[in-house]
Amino acid sequence: PRSLPANQSTTLQLLAGFLKCYSQLDFTTVVLCPLLGKVIPRTVFLSTTSTQAIFPSIPSFLGPTGLQTDKPMCLQDPFELTHNVCRNLPEKAVRILVSHLREAAEVVTSCLVQETRPVGGLV
Questions:
Q1: What is the dihedral of CA 75, 23, 70, 32, to 10 degrees?
Q2: Fewer beta carbons under 10 A from the terminal one: N or C of the chain?
Q3: pLDDT tens, position by position, 19-73
């Protein structure tokens, strides 16, 4: 395996990038998969062939007792692959989460610019 180059970004830059990325994500069209560390289009989970291509060594977790991808947000449990951790999260809560992510991204990004850093040693 090829090693990755050292990351030169600061923790604050990484956090700003993370918040910006997830604040712009359309959670209704993707599955967050921490097991693979990827954001997967929900359309992949419509057929067994597609899921087997991504999860070749794992038996299918589709069907009525499988992963519930028809919810406003789908975060796949990395240990129990048929479990959507966010299955009970209503659409309004997802909108609120995205709003908070957007606001946090703005605050953290402003901390990266010397002129807009808050006074008091936050950064």
A1: -30
A2: N
A3: 999 999 999 999 999 988 999 999 988 877 888 788 777 777 777 778 899 999 9
Asked if residue 76 lies in contact with residue 67, where contact means CB atoms within 8 angstroms, the answer is yes
Q: What is residue 84's three-state secondary structure?
A: strand
The conformation of residue 58, written as its DSSP 8-state character, comes to S
Closest CA to 88 of 74, 101, 102, 100: 74
Q: Phi-psi region for residue 63, left (φ > 0), alpha (ψ -120 to 50) or beta?
A: left
- At 13, which amino acid appears? Q
* Tens digits of residue pLDDT in 62-116: 777 788 999 999 999 999 988 999 999 999 999 999 999 999 999 999 888 876 6
* Tokens read off for 79: 């240990």
77 close to 36: Cβ distance less than 8 angstroms: no
Contact criterion met (CB below 8 Å) for 29 and 71? no
In three-state secondary structure terms, 48 is helix
